[in-house]
């Protein structure tokens, strides 16, 4: 038992004793003694109350410190149960607070290092508050940091309206906005809603499409160099060996019939390998020297119909059902280049559905804000997760006899038109989206 508890008990016992004595003198009508011991009773009661209140005040100060997350105190246990529990609670809360602060600092440091813009909104009863925003997000949109989401309405009205249009639900889209009164830039926007019993968060990620393209291009060129090196080595290594062998035979004084036959075989192989290398170089030239599009006001619907008519016999031969949902939209494009890109996608789709009993290829044209999207989907075998990042890589193919430039060429054509070619995995099959500017 603590010292304060002993003092409180003593004062309480003295107060009880004084009360008993006071009552005794009251019965004897000794009024002076009654007054004296009444005063003593009052004094001991006040001292007992003061001693007890002191413990309550210390415990209350500790609890208030916990509630305010002020852990600058260093309370000590004085032996009483109240103080013992209060001190234990204080230090337990302090440890949890320090751990939480450490994790928060760690997570924020990680999020600050991201190369994409990130903002997290928290839904309060009154309005959306900015729970977290990283420097990249502020830099992309050239805005200061505010705690209230409403304050951004005046700073970035276009972007604010785009977020409002999502109704704070999960979404994914591309959009164009002007930053710092410059020309419009394209961005990839993803939003996700997270809700639990206590909190409601809205996560916004923002990434420059140009930056995405640059990163993909860098990776693609690195992979391309590997492919080219592999192709050249596979072709030139055996050719070099055969040439050395021919040089050895030609240096002999007498070339017998067997050596002559060997020379003929070697020359045949060299010719075949040379043609293979020439085809490889020609395919590379098609991708590397893509001509500048000759733009005209063209109907996407007519381009689709023309491509389908061109491949009509292939569709019929493979018993493929063609499903069309074509809105009439006009875009500024090179008709022949877009048709070539579309034919490449149809040829890939024909290969994808080849092993299906019921073969379906669906084509749709839809409008989305200031974009027109031509979507080609199939119910084929799909693209595995392992190779989905390689499908646009030049000369990468899973088809026997395929050149591996179809998707690369289609993607390059779309980028030359200021658009995008996007792959999406479906539950059954694949989908390619050609995004055009109106």
Automatic annotation (TrEMBL):
| Positions of the Histidine kinase domain | 227-438
Matching entries from CDD domains are given as: HATPase
Q: In terms of domain of life, where is this protein from? A: Bacteria
Q: Which reaction does it catalyse?
A: ATP + protein L-histidine = ADP + protein N-phospho-L-histidine
Q: Name one GO molecular function term.
A: ATP binding
Q: Which Pfam families match?
A: HATPase_c
Alphabetic keyword roster:
ATP-binding, Kinase, Membrane, Nucleotide-binding, Transferase, Transmembrane, Transmembrane helix, Two-component regulatory system
Q: What is its EC number?
A: 2.7.13.3
**Statement: the UniProt record of this protein carries the keyword Lipoprotein:** no
Name the top EC class.
transferase
Alphabetical list of PROSITE patterns matching this protein: HIS_KIN
Q: PANTHER family in the record, alphabetically?
A: C4-DICARBOXYLATE TRANSPORT SENSOR PROTEIN DCTB, SENSOR HISTIDINE KINASE
Q: What protein name does the entry list? A: histidine kinase
The species this protein belongs to is Chryseobacterium vrystaatense
């Amino acid at each position: 038992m603590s010292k304060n508890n002993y003092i409180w008990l003593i004062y309480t016992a003295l107060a009880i004793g004084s009360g008993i004595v006071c009552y005794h003198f009251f019965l004897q009508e000794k009024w002076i003694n009654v007054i004296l011991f009444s005063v003593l009773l009052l004094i001991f009661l006040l001292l007992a109350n003061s001693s007890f209140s002191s413990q309550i005040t210390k415990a209350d100060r500790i609890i208030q410190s916990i509630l305010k997350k002020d852990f600058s105190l260093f309370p000590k246990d004085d032996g009483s149960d109240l103080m013992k529990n209060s001190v234990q609670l204080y230090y337990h809360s302090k440890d949890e607070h320090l751990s939480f602060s450490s994790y928060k600092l760690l997570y924020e440091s990680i999020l600050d290092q991201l190369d994409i813009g990130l903002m997290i909104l928290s839904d309060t009863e009154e309005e959306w508050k900015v729970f977290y925003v990283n420097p990249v997000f502020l830099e992309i949109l050239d805005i200061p940091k505010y705690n209230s989401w409403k304050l951004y309405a005046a700073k970035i009205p276009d972007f604010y309206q785009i977020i409002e249009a999502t109704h704070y639900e999960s979404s994914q889209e591309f959009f164009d906005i002007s930053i710092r009164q410059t020309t419009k830039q394209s961005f990839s926007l993803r939003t996700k809603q997270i809700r639990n019993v206590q909190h409601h968060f809205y996560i916004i990620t923002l990434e420059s499409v140009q930056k995405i393209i640059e990163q993909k291009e860098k990776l693609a060129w690195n992979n391309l160099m590997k492919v080219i090196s592999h192709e050249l080595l596979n072709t030139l290594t055996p050719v070099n060996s055969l040439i050395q062998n021919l040089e050895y035979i030609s240096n002999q004084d007498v070339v017998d019939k067997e050596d002559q036959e060997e020379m003929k075989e070697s020359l045949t192989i060299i010719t075949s390998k040379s043609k293979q290398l020439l085809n490889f170089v020609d395919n590379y030239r098609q991708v590397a020297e893509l001509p500048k599009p000759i733009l005209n006001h063209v109907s996407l619907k007519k381009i689709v119909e023309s491509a389908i008519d061109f491949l009509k016999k292939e569709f019929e031969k493979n018993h493929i059902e063609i499903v069309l949902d074509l809105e009439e939209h006009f875009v500024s494009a090179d008709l022949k280049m877009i048709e070539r890109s579309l034919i490449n996608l149809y040829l890939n789709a024909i290969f994808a559905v080849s092993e299906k009993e019921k073969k379906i290829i669906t084509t749709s044209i839809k409008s989305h804000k200031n974009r027109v999207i031509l979507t080609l989907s199939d119910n084929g075998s799909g693209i595995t997760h392992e190779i989905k990042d390689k499908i646009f890589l030049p000369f990468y193919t899973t088809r026997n006899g395929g050149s591996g430039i179809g998707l690369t060429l289609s993607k390059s054509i779309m980028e030359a038109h200021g658009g995008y070619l996007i792959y999406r995995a479906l539950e059954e099959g694949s989908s390619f989206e050609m995004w055009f500017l109106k």
